[in-house]
């Protein structure tokens, strides 16, 4: 039997699944607390050992969001066009976008304060105005900026500005323009470049582990791996797909939609997209879930505010009774509902993504994986029956739970073992 070990080193838990590459079946799984306070390899090795299966090191596939994951700043030309396009690309690359600015950079104070791991420098369509992109690149060069920069703007200025940054000692990676023409968004080159910078500069730089073993194992930021798994599932499904991942600190929403050719968005439409809600989580940000639900006029049960405060005060809390588990699920239902509303709408309340044709709704996150099937379905039903949310709900979506945590595993395997990735998703999600 040919096996692969797929692991997600998360901010709280490290999850491991061992996959039979021939049949796409999970043969063992385990999780252990992430040991970011000492060395993340301790938790990873403990989770791997707990599976009871030995897998050679060359078949370990690891993704990570430990240490806050990938923090990205976007510096663009115009707020509604290239900066917005860069923001969308950053999310699709698995980053937490911590800063977005548009126009000429004068002071770098706000950019520094955001503490990015990578700066995505964009601006101008190919052959268009390069003045702002040039100004911003030269500003970073004069400051002797030391945080890696991905240059993904006007192609006509690429070589010159790459040289300007490199000559000043700025770590720079040049790639294709995220917005080569108005209304045309091309995320793939920048997404790949951000992934490479994350692996080569960020993972080792976070001091999550001593030595080179951990950086050598990590192949992607966790959200990037999950999005690749989502894309693989959507391609195999042949239809629209929605994924809601309710975590301890954030709720991430992924969608893959069929292009309809009708978009007039000048920043381009990302048909395969991810949004991150940093105020919607089960532990650290649980009180913010209650505040957001109240603002959205969703019903908040008695006692839920106190329960959320309790969880934020003790992020390691594990429910020890049916009542506490029910409170967890209610918080999760609110987080999922608000997160999908935000994913479907734009800040002005208009429909940003048409989710009516979604065929499969996948729920992920520990609160769903550890719930009984019927209980987890109640959380997803809150999304599918959200008729007052200002967005058209899916008309015929089948809800399933990623109980075996296969989306990240499939994303990690997709490049080297595409058949195993598809079979894994088929067995554990599509056929669920």
TrEMBL record:
This is Glutamate mutase. It comes from the Bacteria. It comes from Asanoa hainanensis.
